[in-house]
Amino acid sequence: MAGHSKWANIQHRKGRQDEKRGKIWTRCIREIMVAARQGGGDLSANPRLRLAVDKAKAANMPADTIKRNIDKATGNLEGVSYEEIRYEGYGIGGAAIIVDTMTDNKVRTVAEVRHAFSKNGGNLGTEGSVSFQFRNVGQLILAPGTSEDMVMEVALDAGAEDVIASEDGAIEVLTAPGDFEKVKEALEGAGLKPEIAEVTMRADNTVDLTGEDAQKMQKLLDALEDLDDVQEVYHNAEIDEE
Q1: Half-sphere exposure of 46 (CA within 13 A, CB side)
Q2: Which residues lie below 8 Å from residue 73, measured CB to CB, with a gap of 6+?
Q3: What is the pLDDT of residue 100?
Q4: H helices present in the chain, as ranges
Q5: Pick from 121, 86, 87, 93: which is nearest to 219 by CA?
């Protein structure tokens, strides 16, 4: 299947994440604690915890920090209890936004999320207002220049649902969440290392934003991502700031 250009958006997103590296550890720790509390501290029996630990290692978090937070979550050490809450809303041009949070204070979190939306030209919606436009999938994206035929053969054999080639040469592999690790391991085993590999909320359709609208949308997304309680921000905007 052919898809629209997305590599520039991916590189842009990675660059912004690198700029916010200081917040990455905090988010990794919260995800580790919630995953361990819900599914136990055994990585071999808890796929969500394995993904959280992989993300923490990729962010260069020390092993003892990871272990300490698993122990906190499983009751071996005293720790803060976090609750997962999802918010939905609209950005510039009607773009759909999902905001996943982990919080120990719901009143504070909803106030901060609502303020970020309203201050930056968006609107906080009701539960279910935009989530129907997204699917929970495993997503692996390989750089332009990668062999599409090879990716397709390896990924589909490993159980991937779809392989999508973008106009700029990036290749996107989609899986069911439960098949994500198997497909990732198959690709890496074949020497195909994804630039992005995550279980995410992927929009079925996108909204193209350029010029001033693109800048306003990026400002709104930055404001949401900068909130301490926010773990992930998903949206369906294709942002071109040139």
Answers
A1: 21
A2: 32, 33, 34, 35, 36, 37, 41, 79
A3: 94
A4: 7-19, 21-39, 47-58, 63-73, 106-119, 148-157, 180-189, 211-225
A5: 121
pLDDT digits (tens, 9 = 90+) for 132-169: 999 999 999 999 999 999 999 999 999 999 999 988 88
Residue 8 CA, chain-centre distance (Å), reads: 17
16-73 folds as: Arc Repressor Mutant, subunit A (1.10.10)
The DSSP letter of residue 191 is: T
- Looking at residue 17, its amino acid is Q
- Write down the architecture of domain 134-203 according to CATH: 2-Layer Sandwich (3.30)
- pTM here is 0.77
Report the CATH number of the 83-132+205-240 domain. Answer: 3.30.70.980
Q: Is 109 within 8 Å of 85 (Cβ atoms)?
A: yes
Computed on alpha carbons and rounded to an integer, the radius of gyration of the chain in Å comes to: 18
Are the CB atoms for 165 and 3 separated by under 8 Å?
yes
Which residue, among 223, 231, 28, 205, has the nearest Cα to 124 in the 3D structure? 223
Q: Name the segment(s) of the chain with CATH classification 3.30.70.980.
A: 83-132+205-240, 134-203
**Strand duo 162-166 + 2-3: pairing:** parallel
How far apart are the C-alpha atoms of 176 and 154, rounded to whole Å? 16
Residue 5 has pLDDT above 80, yes or no: no
One-letter amino acid for residue 118 of the chain: S
Q: Quick one: 142 exposed, middle or buried, by C-beta within 10 A (0-12, 13-18, 19+)?
A: buried
Q: Are 122 and 91 in contact (CB under 8 A)?
A: yes
Question: What three-state secondary structure class fits 218?
Answer: helix
